[in-house]
Structure formats: C-alpha cells, structure tokens
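Question:
Now give any protein.
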Amino acid sequence: MLATGNNLRSLSHFFRISKSSLSLMIPVICDAIYNALEIFIQVPRNSEEWEAIGNGFRKFWNFPGCCGAIDGKHVVIKAPFEAGSYFYNYKQQNSLVLMALVDDNYCFSYIDIGCNGRISDGGVFRNCNLSEALENGLLPEHHLVVLYTTGSESSKVRSDFEDTENGRFVEGSWRQLPSEGLVPIPRHMYNHPSQNAREIRENFADYFMGEESVSWQSRMIH
C-alpha cells in the first residue's frame, strides 16, 4: 500500500486477506518501519550540525546561506465521514501533507506528516516544530546571508556576514552580533509576498545569475 498506493480493496483481492485484517496489519507494519529507520532521519540537534549542512550546500552546490531544501507533497486520502472540506486541497482532492527537509547529500533532516491538505505551504511550516526551533535561534546566525542591492556589487555576498578562508581563516563580523534567532514573520491574510521578501528573492537571483553562476546551470534549466 505504501509503495503502490493501492487501496485496501485491491490489496485484499491480491493477497487474499480481508480488509478488516489489513486495516489492523498496516499500522503495525508502519510502526515497525519507523522504528527500524528512525536512525536514518536524525534532525540536527544543535547549531554545529546545522552549520555542517550549511557548509555542505556552499561546498557542493555553490549555495551560501542554505541549511536545507524543503518541500511538501500531498498524499491523497479518502476523507473521514463528515470531514467536510477539512482535507480538501487546491487540487480538488482530499489529502494529508508530507513536508520534508533534506540536507546537501539528499538525506532527510526533518519530516512532518499529517497536516490536513487545505492548509497552505506557509501554514504547514508555521505549525511544525521546526519553525519554532528556527525562530528560537537554533539556526546558525551566519547562515542568514545578507546580499548587496547597491551599484555594481549587487551579486556579491557581504564579506562581513560570512567567514572566509583564503590561506588562513578569517572570522566575519557577524560573530559580534547579538544572537536573537530569526525575526518572526507576521501572519498575512493574503498570498502576496512582502516587499522585503521580493527584494531577498531578487538579490539571490542576481547572485546566482551573476558572477557566482556555474557553467552547467543554464543547460540544466532548458
């Protein structure tokens, strides 16, 4: 069922096991899989482990200031009786949301399963404990990269907001800043990004399409 997406009726015919028996067996099997594989999904426990992931993104993917790639997947379900539109998503299906964060080596760093499908991506993230942990300062401060928007240096990362290593290790001035975690993002009643969010996106676009672009990226887009 987990691998094929088949429903209980088709599995019942295929394995010649009653649907009632399958409904008891599947949760037990899922628990066993979780217990066996739990060690392979380890959420970073401190800022040093987050920092190691960030260094991997910079080294292997030429992506500074990144501690993970996050996305969600709608898992289609049959809505419980009298659930109404609680699980009804924008694809006109009933679903649960699987949200996952992966590190620079494609390994899961964090997963959140079970949010009802009608919730937006931002809502799913806002309601998970990863969001709370990041806002409480778990993420290393120097991975909050600040980019220039001024003149010819629009594609350069401010050197004082990162450590550098060119023959010798040089600490950036970010280490002298007070550690206050991430700035809370206010909740909006609309889907349009803020001006600040748009500026950050454009800064990153300039950075990755400018002097820091890699030779193969245009070929991969087309």
Observations:
- Residues 19-37 form the longest helix (19 residues).
- The beta strands are 69-76, 95-102, 108-116, 164-165, 169-170.
